[in-house]
From TrEMBL:
<feature type="signal peptide">
    <location>
        <begin position="1"/>
        <end position="23"/>
    </location>
</feature>
<keyword id="KW-0732">Signal</keyword>
<dbReference type="Pfam" id="PF01497">
    <property type="entry name" value="Peripla_BP_2"/>
</dbReference>
<dbReference type="InterPro" id="IPR002491">
    <property type="entry name" value="ABC_transptr_periplasmic_BD"/>
</dbReference>
<feature type="domain" description="Fe/B12 periplasmic-binding">
    <location>
        <begin position="26"/>
        <end position="282"/>
    </location>
</feature>
<dbReference type="InterPro" id="IPR050902">
    <property type="entry name" value="ABC_Transporter_SBP"/>
</dbReference>
<protein>
    <submittedName>
        <fullName>ABC transporter substrate-binding protein</fullName>
    </submittedName>
</protein>
Length: 289
């Protein structure tokens, strides 16, 4: 009997030590989508630093930044004395990550493609790294249900849409295929007017007139940098497009929508509602799960 009690005591002490060690670990998060997922799982309590792409939730922006996600330095990351780093696949350069691993920092990288289906996988991966598998499975199922609901909505009227991520001078930078923006447009039921090109490219007046977008979707940051809606409609060639003539514009939070984190399904449903309103079609996305 005493042996069983000693054994039980040893197990409890080991568990308490494990919990105490885990609670005292210093974590750094790299990638806005991973930070959002940590927060959604209430797993952000050990965070001591972030990178520049972590802009949500707002309390995390008060944490010190170790630099830009793709251009990190080992010195900057090590300055916050991390025990663990949880990063998305874009963190780098590779040499810096290897240096961090070499000095004993635990590095976990969540590799997920820029697809809507990968959102649930990403949530489950973060849940696994943070010992929250049940919460992660529940959240992943909720997000999957919302995406399935969106996919089952009736088709929208054919609408050629231009997604502007940012602009340079008088030339807007539009999204082609093989981009997160293209995926978002397809998910909502819109036709990408610039699907013939791949990636994000600057689009001149001639291309604007030729592709004739009927609707513009633009990031809030890009629109602000451009100088607001008035500046948008004054871009060369824009006034000759159906979108420019009717001044059809929807402004979105590009990081929240295109980062494919936990907020993306709700924002896609909200975008669908905005599109329905601007096209004057019957609303169908109001009873989402």
């Amino acid at each position: 009997m005493k042996q069983h009690i000693r054994l039980l005591s040893s197990v409890l002490l080991a568990l308490l030590f494990s919990l105490e060690t885990s609670a005292s670990e210093r974590w750094v998060v790299l990638g806005g989508d991973i930070a959002e997922t940590l927060s959604a799982l209430n797993a952000d309590i050990n965070l001591v630093a972030r990178d520049d792409t972590v802009l949500y939730p707002e309390p995390l922006t008060a944490l010190p930044s170790v630099g830009y996600l793709r251009q990190l330095s080992a010195e900057s990351v090590l300055s916050v004395q991390p025990d663990r780093i949880l990063a998305n696949q874009h963190a780098g350069p590779k040499e810096v990550l290897e240096q961090l691993d070499a000095v004993g920092v635990t590095l976990d990288v969540v590799n997920a493609p820029a697809t809507l289906a990968a959102i649930a996988e990403k949530v489950r991966a973060v849940g696994g790294y943070t010992d929250r598998p049940e919460q992660a499975n529940a959240l992943a199922q909720t997000l999957t249900d919302k995406l399935e609901y969106l996919a089952d909505l009736p088709p929208l009227p054919s609408t050629r849409t231009m997604f502007i991520l940012q602009h340079s001078g008088l030339t807007p930078r539009a999204a082609g295929r093989q981009t997160a923006a293209h995926t978002a447009l397809e998910a909502v039921g819109l036709e990408n007017a610039f699907a013939a090109m791949e990636g994000y490219h600057s689009v001149g007046a001639e291309a604007l007139v030729r592709e004739a977008p009927e609707l513009i979707i633009m990031s809030a940051r890009g629109l602000e940098a451009m100088g607001g809606p008035t500046a948008l409609w004054q871009l060369p060639g824009m006034a000759l497009t159906p979108a420019g003539q009717k001044q059809r514009l929807i402004v979105i939070d590009d990081q929240a929508l295109l980062g494919f984190g936990p907020r993306a399904p709700d924002l896609l449903l909200a975008l669908r509602q905005d599109v329905e309103a601007i096209l004057n079609v019957s609303p169908t996305a109001l009873a989402a799960p």
